[in-house]
């Protein structure tokens, strides 16, 4: 699976060298004809990565420096999800570009103005599981369904903790749920929970804030390392220098013994994916104490008398408190009406009716973004809050990541040296031919091990 760090690398590469260029578009395998026609001749003006999703913004002119054009009539947003083995490669000339394949959904070729002395063209070839196009609401509606991305500056861990702490699902399931954590996949799940010292079956509602913070911080740390290096490398050489010196890439993923403590690593099926945990003490299981109702029944009856008395006293105190003046919390008044925008500004979505919330969402994002009519008010409030968060982040200057420190070609070579199978993690920025050329100059695995052993000696 192409994980979140790889998608952010592609977005960064495009921002650095391709924003502001005009492209002709075709769909070689015929599965994106309408979308190719919509972006043909347009300028690539913006790129955004959210979790495992990539969004490319095309317009009729270069408006990359302006956020006010996001909802212009001629804007076309392309949504890409790479699935298990998709890629979006860039070629510098027609000599380098390989023949299109049955999986190639989109091909872009830079349009060079006749007056330009530069004859070098950029060609793009993309194969992906999902490619769709639409207006700006495609981006906002899709982003509203996604959770917090550890690699984005607009991520809100406080909001994520609120969602996690209400869930009865295990944290192992929640990390894989893209509506909670946007970006991590199965390898990251195993290694994030290992570094946080949390057993995967621990439920979200049983996580306290300090433990959640460990999980979030590990998510940010590991995905950022993956972004910088182009590989999922989770062993921390400062934390575990001996493990790093031995050449280990990960602690527990697809291992029988823990790389840190040498304890047993267990694996089992969790919602269709293999889950891993160290049983040697690195990830202690959460113990939930159960009591015998029968043995405590007499004591409970005595307690009930005390509880009833305490409840009576509490109600009396509350009654007295309710008679004391306190700051008023406004309600939705039909007598002294306050307009929708003012109520939204002063008190948030909670002070709007469901009808008012639906009207705002429909106006900004279209019918497709509306919650079902049977949804309760809490669901509508959350949907509008997510929309407002997206709008605020878009209107302000979003801090994108700096370019990765290691190139895609070097990342491919590093994987080859370590013996990493391409089926585990491939480079989504390179075509197969480009990856093979990069690896061709790589020393053999045996030579690399010999050289590494010599350095340790």
Keywords:
alpha+beta; 40% helix
Structural account:
With 457 residues, the chain is of the alpha+beta class. 40% of the residues lie in helices and 12% in strands. It has 15 helices and ten strands. The strands form three sheets. Strands 1-6-7-5 form a four-stranded antiparallel β-sheet. A four-stranded antiparallel β-sheet has the order 2-3-4-8, sandwiched between helices. Strand 2 and strand 3 form a beta hairpin. Helix 1 (4-17) packs across helix 7 (209-229) and helix 6 (186-196) crosses helix 7. It starts with a helix and ends with a helix. Mean pLDDT is 83; it is low at 289-300.
Structural class assignment: alpha+beta
Distance N to C terminus? 37 Å
Shape: flat
**Overall pLDDT confidence:** 83
Spatial order of the strands forming the largest sheet: 1-6-7-5
Indicate the proportion of strand residues. Answer: 5-15%
Largest sheet data: 4 strands, antiparallel
Count of individual beta strands: 10
How many helices does DSSP assign? 15
Helix and strand run: HEHEEEEEEEHHHHHHEEHHHHHHH
- Which consecutive residue ranges, at least 5 long each, have pLDDT under 50? 289-300
Helical residues, percent: 25-40%
* CA-based gyration radius: 27 Å
């Amino acid at each position: 699976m192409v994980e979140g760090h790889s998608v952010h690398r592609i977005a960064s590469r495009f921002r650095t060298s391709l924003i502001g260029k005009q492209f002709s578009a075709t769909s070689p395998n015929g599965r994106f004809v309408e979308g190719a026609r919509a972006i043909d001749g347009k300028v690539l003006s913006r790129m955004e990565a959210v979790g495992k999703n990539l969004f490319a913004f095309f317009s009729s002119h270069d408006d990359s420096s302006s956020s006010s054009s996001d909802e212009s009539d001629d804007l076309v947003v392309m949504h890409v999800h790479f699935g298990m083995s998709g890629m979006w490669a860039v070629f510098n000339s027609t000599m380098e570009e390989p023949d299109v394949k049955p999986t190639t959904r989109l091909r872009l070729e830079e349009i060079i103005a006749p007056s330009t002395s530069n004859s070098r063209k950029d060609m793009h070839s993309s194969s992906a599981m999902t490619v769709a196009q639409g207006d700006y609401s495609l981006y906002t509606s899709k982003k509203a369904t996604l959770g917090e991305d550890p690699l984005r500056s607009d991520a809100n861990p406080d909001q994520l903790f609120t969602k996690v702490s209400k869930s009865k699902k295990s944290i192992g399931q929640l990390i894989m749920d893209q509506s909670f954590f946007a970006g991590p996949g199965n390898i990251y799940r195993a290694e994030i929970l290992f570094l946080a010292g949390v057993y995967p079956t621990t439920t979200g509602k049983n996580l306290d804030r300090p433990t959640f913070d460990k999980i979030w911080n590990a998510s940010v740390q590991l995905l950022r390392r993956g972004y910088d290096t182009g590989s999922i490398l989770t062993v921390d050489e400062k934390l575990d220098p001996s493990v790093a010196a031995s050449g280990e890439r990960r602690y527990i993923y697809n291992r029988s013994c823990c790389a840190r403590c040498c304890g047993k690593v267990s694996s089992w099926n969790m919602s269709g994916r293999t889950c891993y945990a160290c049983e040697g003490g690195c990830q202690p299981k959460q113990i939930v104490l159960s009591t015998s109702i029968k043995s405590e029944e007499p004591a409970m009856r005595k307690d009930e008398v005390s509880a009833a008395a305490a409840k009576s006293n509490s109600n009396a105190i509350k009654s007295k408190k309710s008679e004391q003046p306190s700051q008023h919390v406004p309600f939705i008044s039909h007598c002294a009406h306050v307009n929708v925008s003012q109520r939204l500004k002063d008190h948030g979505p909670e002070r709007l009716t469901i009808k008012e919330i639906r009207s705002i969402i429909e106006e900004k994002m279209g019918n497709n973004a509306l919650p079902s009519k049977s949804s309760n008010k809490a669901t509508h409030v959350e949907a509008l809050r997510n929309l407002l968060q997206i709008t605020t982040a878009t209107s302000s200057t979003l801090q994108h990541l700096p370019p990765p420190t290691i190139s895609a070609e070097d990342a491919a070579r590093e994987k080859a040296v370590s013996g990493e199978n391409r089926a585990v993690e491939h480079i989504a920025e390179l075509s197969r031919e480009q990856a093979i050329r990069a690896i061709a100059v790589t020393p053999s695995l045996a030579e690399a091990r010999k050289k590494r052993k010599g350095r340790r000696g």
